[in-house]
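Hello Y.,

Per our agreement to keep a running log of every chain we model this quarter, I'm adding this entry. I've kept the format consistent with earlier entries: sequence first, then predicted structure.
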Amino acid sequence: MLEHPKIRDRSAALVHLHRVRAGRTVVFTNGCFDLLHAGHVDLLARARDCGDLLVVGLNDDDSVRRLKGPTRPVTPLNERAYVLAGLACVDLVVPFAEDTPLALILALEPDVLVKGGDWPVAAIVGAPQVTARGGRVESLPLIPGLSTTAVIERIVARYGKTRQEQEEASGGRGA
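Predicted structure for the entry above:
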């Protein structure tokens, strides 16, 4: 199991935030973050710029399957969490099992809630609760063409053949 001090369960994240949040703006975003790519990193860096501490709620493997289908995630939870925790802009990674992060948002009480621009503010889970506490909600523009689905499609297009098909196509010289 990959471990990192930025990866915390819900209760440990609450304790940590209670200790460090005084006078600081806590930003929350969430997602599956399967096959981390430049679009993810860009969004996370801009989310962090909305405050002082960035907490990333990370869907566990079962919730990713329910949301994205049986072939996802490609990367298991502990690896996705470890990669996110390695980013300088991320302060905490908190896995969650529910299909939405509402319970986590209610527990952590972020000052700013951020999602990618494919989510209108009115559709962002937790938006009413964050604004009711005086917080704000941001829907940040995404970089066109950068998505996990696009990465998977590119990989399949380039490498989708079986090893045997690749060897046959190369005249038996290997893939």
